[in-house]
Structures are given as C-alpha cells and as structure tokens.
Write a structure and sequence with these properties.
By secondary structure, the protein is mainly alpha-helical. It is 74% helix and 4% strand. A two-stranded antiparallel ribbon has the order 1-2. The longest helix is centred in the middle third of the chain and has 22 residues.
C-alpha cells in the first residue's frame, strides 16, 4: 500500500466509517451541481468561480468514491492520497486524470488565496471535472 496513504490512515485523516456508503448519492449529486455551476461561471466569464467550482466538482466526485469504499476523510491532501492508492494504483482511474486533479487543487488555491486565475486554467479545470465526474459515475 502507498506510504502516503498509510500515513493518512495512521493520522486518522482517512478512516473507516460504516455509514460512509450512505452518503454516496448525496456526494455525487453535489459533484454534478458543482460541475453545472462551473459551466455556468465559464459562460459568464467568471474564471475564478469556474476554477473553484470545477475543483469542488472533482473533490465531491472523489469523496463519492471514498465513501463507496467505506472511508471518510479529514483532509483534501489525504483524499487525494486515498484516491491514488485505492483507484489509480489498481488501474481503475487513469493516472493523468489523477494528476490533473492535483493540479486543479493548486489552481483552486491560487484563485482562492492569491486571486490568481485565468480563462485557460478555468477551462482546463472544467474539462478535468467533466471527465472525473463521468468516470466516477461509471465506477459506482
């Protein structure tokens, strides 16, 4: 098992939860709503919000997968590590999509905390979000 994921488990940033599967539908619906809001923001040329909502579409899609596996998270970083260990390493999710999710996290942080964002970044984040949400729907 991946060492970073193991560390997240040891620090209880990722933990088993018998009720996690109960939240799969709600998380997937949230991912779809964020995706639609990102699309709407792009159409209005609101690139900051398109970037942020695209990230959260990806975040909620990944939480859907984590919940489906019976885990919960307390950290965005550890969520990313869990997806890598549970879905990328076994070949269920393409490594390229996973790496783009990591990059979108950085784009979201720049948009949120440094007020740096662009049309190209927002469009890229949105395309990745579309692909990841579709993949999650396919997997569950």
């Amino acid at each position: 098992m991946d060492q970073k994921f193991e560390n997240c488990l040891a620090r209880k940033q990722i933990y088993a939860d018998k009720t996690a599967k109960n939240f799969v539908g709600k998380e997937l619906a949230e991912a779809a709503e964020d995706l639609q809001e990102a699309k709407d923001a792009l159409a209005r040329q609101k690139y900051k919000w398109a970037t942020i909502r695209s990230y959260y579409a990806q975040f909620h899609a990944c939480r859907t997968l984590l919940f489906h596996e019976g885990y919960r998270e307390r950290s965005h970083y550890c969520l990313i590590q869990a997806i890598g260990a549970l879905f990328v390493e076994p070949g269920k999710i393409d490594r390229g999509i996973y790496k783009q999710f990591e990059k979108t996290k950085a784009l979201r942080e720049k948009a949120d905390y440094e007020l740096e964002y662009s049309r190209i970044g927002a469009e890229t984040a949105f395309r990745v979000a579309e692909e990841l949400v579709a993949k999650v729907k396919e997997l569950i």
